[in-house]
Amino acid sequence: MRRLVSELYVRENCHPFKASVLVWVQLPMWIVVSLALRNLSTGTAYSEGLSVQEQLTTGGVLWFPDLTALDSTWILPISVGVINLLIVEIFALQKTGMSRFQIYITHFVRGLSVLMIPIAATVPSSLVLYWLCSSVMGLSQNLLLRSPGFRRLCRIPLTKSDSDTPYKDLLAAFYTKFLSRK
Questions:
Q1: Does residue 96 contact residue 102 with C-beta atoms inside 8 Å?
Q2: Given a cut of 90, is residue 50 above it in pLDDT?
Q3: Which letter does DSSP use for residue 124 in this model?
Q4: Residue 132 has what pLDDT?
Q5: Is residue 40 within 8 Å of 56, Cβ to Cβ?
Q6: How far is it, in rounded angstroms, from Cα 64 to Cα 72?
Q7: pTM of the entire structure?
Q8: Phi, psi dihedral angles at 61 (to 5 degrees)
């Protein structure tokens, strides 16, 4: 079996490391930017002239004018949790016949998405805004890569499991899983 899997990797040029290399770059980058924003928001970063923290206190918009303060309305923290949960659910809806391990991992990531809400409520709004933007970009990428037109444009080959109507299929699966009363 190992020999067959190895031959498959070579034949299809799809070693698992290639699929995971983005995570190994993206995750440390997300952590570094999050720590930097936290330090800038709390004033622990040193700068000459008008400090970055002073600029962040007046740089917000809408209901969060002060990016160094917590979001007292909880709109940003809840948005981060909901968007992350939506990403997990979109992934879970496309999978059929998941292994027990995949089901456990999906439940674990759902739990992390919900846990992000109280965590995001305890950090400066600048950090939560970054997390929200990052999550929205992840959701957008996830949805865009399902589009057959976009895949053709980028010359991404279609697979047997790809649908001609991915968004309709996604909505139907969502409706069936969460809204239909059987």
A1: no
A2: no
A3: -
A4: 93
A5: yes
A6: 8
A7: 0.73
A8: -140, 170
List, for residues 83-92, the tens digit of each pLDDT value: 999 999 888 8
176: amino acid identity, one letter: T
Diameter over CA atoms, the chain? 64
- Residues with Cβ within 8 Å of 11's Cβ and at least 6 positions away in sequence, in order, are none
The amino acid that residue 178 corresponds to is: F
Mean pLDDT of the chain: 80
Cα 36-40-43 angle, rounded to 5 deg: 135
Residue 170 is predicted with a pLDDT of 83
CA 5 centroid distance within chain = 30
Q: Where are the alpha helices (H) located in the chain, listed in sequence order?
A: 2-12, 16-42, 52-57, 75-94, 100-120, 125-144, 148-153, 166-174
Q: How many CA atoms lie within 13 A of 23 on its CB side?
A: 5
